[in-house]
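I'll show a typical protein example:
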Amino acid sequence: MEALLKASEASALMGVSMRHVRRMAQSGALSYQIHMNAQNRPEYLFPLSSLPDAAQQKYFAEHAPAALPAATPAKAKKADKPAACKPLEAYTAEERGEIGYWITTVDRWQTYRNKAGTKKAECDEKFVLLCRMEEPDRQISVETLYRKWAAIREGDYGALVDMRGKARKGMSKMPEAIERVFLTLYLDDRQYPIPRCIDMTKQWAQEEMPEALPLPCYHTFYRKAKALPEPVVVLCRQGPKAYYDQCSPYIRRNYENFFSNEVWVGDTHTLDVISISPEGIKHRLHLSAWQDARSGVFVGWYVSDNPGSQETLNALRKGIQNFGIPQTVYVDNGREFLNKDVGGLGHRAKKSRKEKDKKFSPPPGVFERLGIKMTNAIVRNARAKLVERRFEDFKNYISRLFPTYCGGNVTEKPENLKFVLKKGEHIPTDEEVIDAVNTLLPAYMNCQPYGGSVLADAKKTRIEVWQDHLPDGKVVRAASEEDLRLMMLRTSDPVRVSRSGVPLKIHGMKLWYHSAELCNFYFNKYVYVRYDPDDLSCVRVYGTDDKFLMEVPQSIMEANYNDNQEKIGRIMAYKRRAERDLQKFADALTLEDKDPERALNLVRNIAFRNASELELYPNSKLVELRYAREEPLLKAVGDIDIGRMNENIIRQRGGIEDGENL
């Protein structure tokens, strides 16, 4: 039985009033027992282990000295061997309660036996009888009291704890080699079950360590496996990705210092709703969305059946029109963001293999033209993007409302979905789904209670949090519709201006844009083309220095063999007009007098001037020509005799044939 303290003693140890101690007992913060005192009145008694650790430490510090009188030399037989003392934090709450009980009991015993005019031996016997009457279940003897007293004087709190059944705790008969083999098999990414690991361990022991047989029972191996730290098991059996998602230290983002529109998080989500397209095809649409990191508000979104960079920009344009321009966007490493004319290629950029590409640096993307800084998340780090958690809310608040809700996986799939699809009566169209999303996102989801980590905003809605945390007195960076249209134009690769104009390749189809001014003044030069995917009637042409040159309409210089005469006539008139315009430009650069003999007369004048200058030079003297004097080649010793060789050939052939020359 552990030490029981009165309310006055507990209040003194905890540093609070007695009324506060009783209030803690009534609220359940402290466990207590009710005993009848000498006046037959109920009294609160508090177990020592129920008090805070600081109060328990204070109790031990106050009572241990009183129970530690100087030891007599005759009794201190083991004084030469100091006890291995552990701090109180090393013991459990139950063990600390037992330590407190023995300290209190020894303190009472010392007070009882030190009364004047009494024999200590008789007091010891009487005190033991008194303890047995108070606690019949606890066997206390005089020897026990002396043994506990000696342990208290030595500071050995472990001797005050009942160690029966605990002496071999943590010990095992399993050899270390067997344990290592078992854990090697168990901590494998193939995730062998424990019985299978035991069987393979036995087989290893039979071959490599037969002296270790028989092995311990199944429960011993089971305890070894379950005693392993969970992060170790997850890392070794499930892999680094599972460890990173489940057990690695979690970095909490501090949103208290964020402002609205400081960071937007963007991503794409596949709707968990089956809809039917205008062509009658059943499919699932995609939501490209941007979310404000401070408030959790969906600021911009766009629903489509083929998500990409343009759908992402459409959602961004909608968000800027309604909420202003953000300072930073936090995105993943998808192609819809790491695009040359959106946010730049980032780590996807590679060294160009073409010389012409090395001559030009790519123009700034949409984010840079809008003054937005792009930050990319770590690859395969989904928990870093807040918007993915908001997509779960989107599924629960909106997607589940549709009769064709299909869930995010097989386990979430409703059982009656196949009957709804088979009947086909309640399958929503794409237009109905898009209309529902455009209605429910701003007026329903953005008005839900704020569920973020900032406790000060717990009672506000998300849109109220966005409004309350705008920087500099509710000021947002905005852009006019015309400026926004220009800043969000897509940009092509550098293209060369040819006789046909400039090409624009979209989804594998090449569109041509032509104007007389472009082809006449920038022929065979490289330019950039910026275009609005929603309006391809004309494009804006920029130089390689990103300077605006002109707007160019779609080319009309295309004709089929079966086109009528009027269309061919319009095309030919366009060609003649382009030639006339170029001729007018050339005429403006030249003289009006087109004398065809002007060049001949200019050259003749130059010749006359040079001839007059030549007459001023003195006559040159004739010089004697020198000839090379060739010495005859000397014959080397043993030189070949050509005449003798010819005679031998004639002799071998039997004479000279007709027409043959030597």
The radius of gyration is 49 Å. DSSP finds 24 helices and 15 strands in the chain. Confidence is low (pLDDT under 50) at residues 65-83. Residues 175 and 208 are 13 Å apart (CA to CA).
